[in-house]
Design a protein that fits this description.
The complex is a heterodimer of chains A (236) and B (222). Chain A has 236 residues and is α+β, with helices and mostly antiparallel strands. Chain A has helices at 53-60, 99-106, 111-114, 122-131, 216-219, 222-234, and strands at 4-10, 15-20, 24-30, 37-43, 70-72, 78-85, 144-146, 150-152, 158-160, 169-175, 179-184, 201-207. Chain A has one domain. Chain A has 6 helices and 12 strands. The two termini of chain A are 29 Å apart. Chain B is an alpha+beta fold and 222 residues long. Helices cover 13% and strands 28% of the residues of chain B. Chain B contains 3 helices and 11 strands. Chain B is globular. Classes of the chains: A alpha+beta (236), B alpha+beta (222). Chains A and B meet through helix 1 and helix 6 of A and strand 5, helix 1 and helix 2 of B.
């Protein structure tokens, strides 16, 4: 039985952050189905080292993320491994919406009128949460979107897949170093839903066993094995 | 291998005369280049010998925190490939430049730049000593000054590179679609700082294991 360290929840359209320690894991659960979680990752000790979308994609020859894949930093090290995933596809390509996009798609909804159901956007949420750690727009790199699926066809066109993530879908990230995790539950920027309808996400932080020699993420491909070597050297 | 012959790549030539350019330089294989391009100026990058990768970043000249965003660019056009008509979007939703001519037909913005660290992951720990684009980017931006740092280096465009994505979510590196003297031309929609690393990669066939020069020209507004 794995040790549950604590549970939490991100309300629809809200933001959250935590320094996920090496040797722990973060499980995200799409409570209602159709959630989206925008995510950024930084080395807590040196935030100039951060999740790198191209390095993650090209090292693993992927344009989607699922179990067995890892999140590479720009320094050849692994921030987090995806150790479990029932959704099967998470989107690294599409980035985040901003205030202009949210207003053009969903109209205006102020705090004064709507209190905490006011319209929020992922770009501003990221900036606010980053600022709490001394980081800024200069540090905001390409985020990924958990629970969302965007496919690319033969001519390069991108298409958002509606209804991809069912209620109860989970994805679990194991921290391979102390990682600053910045999340928000704003809608995916390509979500064709005409209404402002972000969904809640449940969180659990769990103890994680040391990474075994035959760990599925480590042996998934030689690139990952070398990433683990570099990450384990960093911890020495 | 993806059959590019089955995909019609849009080719658009430019009428601009190189002898009338206000700036004309060769960037040697493996070298960095950094230059301010003012609004209305046209920047042309020429793949002089073919199959060379020109790793390129853009920043608003007035606010370096507002910079080229690969994700915003592909999302704005709902297509992952860059060619004539593509508006290069910034992280804050502004149009930095527009591609106005392209004799290559397709450029990548998902493959990023090579780095000594990513080379170790991709090709072996012994490759750490090999020159890489991110070394050039760091040298270019820190030499430029104005507070530019490593953390400002974001995800770039790979002009002349072909990195297809499959419907199953695989990322593949295919033979280049470029050839000698193919070029891409961009009109600056605001004052921008352009940073290029003329890729020194020797571990993969992106440049046929033989990095070669590129030529960079700038025309003033007519």
């Amino acid at each position: 039985m794995r040790t549950l360290l604590f549970e939490d929840r991100i309300e629809p359209g809200a933001t959250w952050s935590h320094v996920l320690k090496r040797g722990t894991a973060l499980r995200l659960t799409d409570v209602e189905g159709g959630a989206n979680v925008g995510a950024l990752f930084y080395n807590w000790e040196n935030p100039t080292e951060r999740y790198n979308m191209p390095d993650t994609l090209k090292a693993q020859h992927i344009a989607r993320l699922t179990s067995g894949d890892v999140l590479f930093s720009d320094m050849g090290r692994i921030l987090c491994s995806i150790v479990d995933d029932t959704a099967g596809w998470h989107d690294p390509l599409s980035g985040c919406g901003n205030a202009e996009l949210v207003e053009s798609k969903y109209g205006e909804a102020s705090y004064q009128e709507h209190r905490n159901a006011f319209h929020r956007n992922a770009y501003d949420e990221f900036l606010i949460e980053l600022a709490k750690y001394g980081l800024s727009a200069r540090d905001l790199t390409a985020p990924l979107n958990f629970f969302s699926k965007v496919v690319v066809d033969e001519v390069g066109d991108m298409r958002f897949v509606t209804g991809h993530s069912p209620a109860g879908a989970t994805v679990e990230l194991r921290a391979e170093m102390n990682v600053l995790v910045i999340l928000n539950t704003c809608q995916h920027p390509l979500d064709p839903n005409p209404g402002y309808a972000p969904r809640p996400v449940a969180l659990a932080v769990l103890a994680a066993a040391p990474v075994a020699a035959d760990d599925p993420c480590r042996i998934a491909r030689p690139e990952n094995a070398r990433g683990f070597i570099l990450t384990e050297r960093y911890a020495l | 291998m993806t059959s590019l012959t089955a995909v019609m790549l849009p080719l658009v030539e430019s009428r601009l005369n190189p002898s009338l350019a206000s700036y004309d330089a060769i960037v040697a294989a493996g070298d960095p280049w950094i230059h301010e391009i003012r609004r209305g100026q046209i920047l042309r990058i020429v793949d002089v010998e073919g199959n060379q990768a020109a790793d390129t970043l853009f920043y608003s000249a007035n606010d370096y925190s507002d910079r080229y965003s690969a994700q915003d660019t592909i999302r704005a056009q709902a297509n992952i490939y860059l060619t004539t008509g593509t508006r290069l979007m910034s992280s804050q939703g502004h149009v930095l430049l527009t591609i106005v001519a392209d004799t290559c037909g397709r450029h990548d913005t998902l493959g990023g730049a090579c780095a000594t660290e990513s080379n170790m992951v991709r090709y072996g720990l012994e490759t750490r000593h090999m020159h890489a684009c991110r070394q050039s980017f760091v040298k270019a931006v820190t030499g430029w000054g104005h507070g530019f740092e490593k953390r400002d280096i974001t995800h770039n465009i790979n002009f002349f590179m072909n990195v297809p994505v499959t419907p199953a979510g695989k990322l593949t590196f295919e033979d280049g679609v470029s050839a000698p003297n193919k070029y891409v031309e961009l009109r600056a929609e605001m004052d921008v700082v352009a940073v290029i690393s003329n890729c020194p990669q020797l571990n993969n066939p992106c440049n046929a294991y033989n990095p070669t020069p590129i030529r960079v020209l700038v025309w003033d507004p007519s």
